[in-house]
């Protein structure tokens, strides 16, 4: 953790040094038979490579020496560590049945605790947490530095989950079936050895597994191309093939969707590239390709409707769907005629709106949006004629609004609200009435009384106005003498949204410096339409 915290303290001189260290890591221009340029640093991709570990240690030691030579280092490190390891953080929680779940890490639980409590208990200042899985204890018992990479749970019975465990945080994972009732791994249950793999529950006794099955089953990018059906207790070599992609694909995977009304859909996603994919509906054991555009994401199933985020303009049999919209596709109709879909628009963005999330309660669809980079949360419902309406929930303005857990058994959701200067607050929202119940709030990590947030716009060469934020002391001189931290990110369609500065506020803003945050550089579907890639 200290290495991570130290990264927050980087000086301009150190950044220049880091740039120089990588100056000789440019890939060579020669190409093997597949046309992909050879990478002179490919040996560094093996996390256990002795040379890679030695190189990383040498660079870390060099950087650490620069940091520790600064007389401010001990104080800054202590302040950053106190914030990072604080036990009064707001837990990120989700619903599962009648229980509330959280994965927690702190100085005493470095690998983490998967834990649970009741909603009534969570409302208290000190909830009665019950341990589901102690990852630190598991790592110690097995002599492996396990990193918890999440779960895939059987939503039919809600008793069993497949736990993803990574050795040291690598991409490859070991998968083990876990009993939520006994809070133990299932003896003789599903257990898949280490590999780059994903799973989905087809039914309570069957997993759909995408992994390396032998020669020709991994893509050129190093991800699975083959999905097989694996029964409980069945050896891997007896699994039955369900889908086989092409070597030029990036990857394939399966997902099973269920709604509160009992409908179920199993989809296969054939990822042609990072942003383009074919979507198949598994019916009678056979995959049927759905006539969806390549740039879409199926967000879930609600009241028998596939809820789809559309990331490109789409002419669907005379229905014009604009980029950035959310549509509903009737599951039964899609299964009967996958070549002719009839989407109904749930949401279409305005010039200054962008979608950030889709979630579901028992009877409602929840849409998280940004309006000029300010968070909004809407409840959407179907009308009798199949069209959709939506209503705005009343939450604080000028902040980021995030759904951390929606309850599919009831009409409620956990929602967090945070801004640059205001600490994160967690509330429980009733999606029937709109009532907002404040549950938890993080304490202030820095003195924000002398700071101000300004939203400005930069104009690109094509005239697009791109919003960004400046967070600064009120009395900062505009003479070029103020240290300024300019942060930007431009990959994977991930936008930069307002969030509480925490450590940066304590170490940077509180000491009189300035910071600037764009919503993103290469913005994706969560940005307004004019700022999305074509």
Describe the structure concisely for a colleague.
By secondary structure, the protein is mainly β. The relative contact order is 0.07. The model is unreliable at 10-32 and 519-526 (pLDDT under 50).
Question: How does this structure look, described?
Answer:
With 534 residues, the protein is mainly β. 13% of the residues lie in helices and 40% in strands. Strands 5, 6, 7, 8 and 9 form a five-stranded antiparallel β-sheet that branches. The protein has a four-stranded antiparallel β-sheet with strand order 1-2-3-4. A four-stranded antiparallel β-sheet has the order 10-11-12-13, with no helix packed on it.
Q: How many helix segments?
A: 8
Uncertain segments of ≥5 residues (pLDDT<50)?
A: 10-32, 519-526
Question: Describe the biggest sheet?
Answer: 5 strands, antiparallel
Q: Pairing-aware structural class of the strands and helices?
A: mainly beta
Rg, Cα atoms, Å: 25 Å
Mean pLDDT score, rounded?
Answer: 89
Which descriptor suits the 3D outline? globular
Report the portion of residues in β strands. Answer: 35-45%
What is the terminal-to-terminal distance?
39 Å
Please tag this protein with its features:
534 residues; mainly beta; five-stranded antiparallel sheet; four-stranded antiparallel sheet; 35 strands; 40% strand; globular
Topology:
Layout: H1 2-7, H2 12-21, H3 50-68, H4 73-84, E1 93-96, E2 99-106, E3 109-118, H5 119-122, E4 130-134, H6 135-142, E5 146-153, E6 160-167, E7 173-179, E8 184-185, E9 191-195, E10 198-203, E11 206-210, E12 226-231, E13 240-244, E14 251-258, E15 264-271, E16 277-283, E17 286-289, E18 296-302, E19 305-310, E20 314-316, E21 319-321, E22 326-330, H7 331-336, E23 344-347, E24 353-360, E25 365-371, E26 374-382, E27 388-392, E28 400-407, E29 412-418, E30 425-430, E31 436-441, E32 451-459, E33 465-473, E34 484-486, H8 503-507, E35 514-518
Parallel strand pairs: 34-35
Antiparallel strand pairs: 1-2, 2-3, 3-4, 5-6, 6-7, 7-8, 7-9, 10-11, 11-12, 12-13, 14-15, 15-16, 16-17, 18-19, 19-22, 20-21, 22-23, 24-25, 25-26, 26-27, 28-29, 29-30, 30-31, 32-33, 33-35
Helix pairs in contact: 2-3
